[in-house]
Amino acid sequence: MNFEGRQEKLRENIARNRLDGLLVTHLPNVRYLCGFTGSAAALLITRSKSQFFTDGRYTEQASEEVQGARLVIARKAPLPAAAEWLTKNAKKLRLKILGVEGEHLTVAERQRFAKNLPSGLRLRDASPMIERERMVKDEDEIEKIRAAVLLGASLFDVALKTIRPGVKEVEVAAEMEYAARCAGAEAMSFETIIAAGPRSALPHGRASDAPIPASGFVVCDFGVILAGYCSDMTRTVHVGQPSAEVRRIYQAVKDAQEAAVAAVKPESPVGKVDDVARKLLHNNGLGKCFTHSTGHGVGLEIHEPPRIAVKQKERLQPGMVITIEPGVYISGEGGVRIEDMVLVTEDGCEVLTPTSKELIII
Ligand code: ZN
Ligand code: ZN
């Protein structure tokens, strides 16, 4: 990972935003910039310095992992430690405006931090500069994401072996999660969704202790974290013989998903990709049943920019990794969602998820 290069890019952004520095406290951003994977950290990037703060629990881990920054192992939490260091070095640094990640600080944290700063140093909410850089993945990141996607996809086979009428949703999730850990996943990237029968109409129906009914859809939405990077995919299977209407609904979602994937290419506004999926479902009389956005960026976090949603103007760029996941939800009956991870390439896109989208009947 080119941590120094990322920090240099951030320095350019800091200058462009007329800040004298940025205090990075959002842990995925800290990891992106210096490699630290622990749970307590702050990284101060000024125009000339990178200073990393953590506490005594991470002495060894920080010296092993952190690259491109000087370490401060403090007896206090990273934020007060950063405030103390700024006060001690105020004369040398001569900082006037320090950016903070307002989206990721609590009001109390920010107030406490501000109170302990040297006089003459003001805080300003910085724009999400690091998140913007993180949207476009480098080769190294894409390789890690590919590995996470493949491991994630292998869990679908476990789901297919486990899903039977009478088996509880949580039992399916548990088998998948056990297989994920055995295969080396650090964690699931979110709570596994196994939603069967009428529960499949809940877009975020996390696995419950409800048994899988004799007939109906089962939405399986799951992902793993591997080497820090997330995977995310959804497949919907049907238990029992589907009616013609059920097949029609599945086909409409599959068509919408494939049409949206086909619309993924550099320079395309993300809102247009969303529009393609939405129009197709609308034309099938299912527009009102598609109640969420078409997708999101994936990387160190399971949900990161860009949002593939109505009226979003962000333009796709080669190296972005996004999901395409339209769905249809009919309250009291059931739902279908199909989700792939997609890499934007120079001339279009590559679907990373290797799994078939044909309707599987169990
Ligand atoms: Zn998902
Ligand atoms: Zn997703």
Summarize the structure.
With 362 residues, the protein is an alpha+beta fold. The protein has helices at residues 3-16, 27-34, 59-65, 78-88, 90-93, 107-115, 129-135, 139-162, 169-182, 244-262, 270-283; strands at 21-24, 42-46, 50-55, 70-74, 97-100, 122-125, 187-188, 193-196, 216-222, 224-226, 229-230, 233-239, 295-297, 304-308, 321-324, 327-330, 334-337, 340-345, 348-351. The chain has two domains: 3-133, Creatine Amidinohydrolase, Chain A, domain 1; 136-351, Creatine Amidinohydrolase (Alpha-Beta Complex).
Helix/strand layout:
Elements: H1 3-16, E1 21-24, H2 27-34, E2 42-46, E3 50-55, H3 59-65, E4 70-74, H4 78-88, H5 90-93, E5 97-100, H6 107-115, E6 122-125, H7 129-135, H8 139-162, H9 169-182, E7 187-188, E8 193-196, E9 216-222, E10 224-226, E11 229-230, E12 233-239, H10 244-262, H11 270-283, E13 295-297, E14 304-308, E15 321-324, E16 327-330, E17 334-337, E18 340-345, E19 348-351
The structure holds zinc ion (2 copies).
Any overview of this molecule?
The chain has 362 residues and is an alpha+beta fold. It has two domains: 3-133, 3-Layer(aba) Sandwich (Creatine Amidinohydrolase, Chain A, domain 1), CATH 3.40.350.10; 136-351, Creatinase/methionine aminopeptidase superfamily (Creatine Amidinohydrolase). Helices cover 36% and strands 23% of the residues. A hairpin with a 2-residue loop joins strand 18 and strand 19 (348-351). The mean pLDDT is 96. The structure holds zinc ion (ZN) (2 copies).
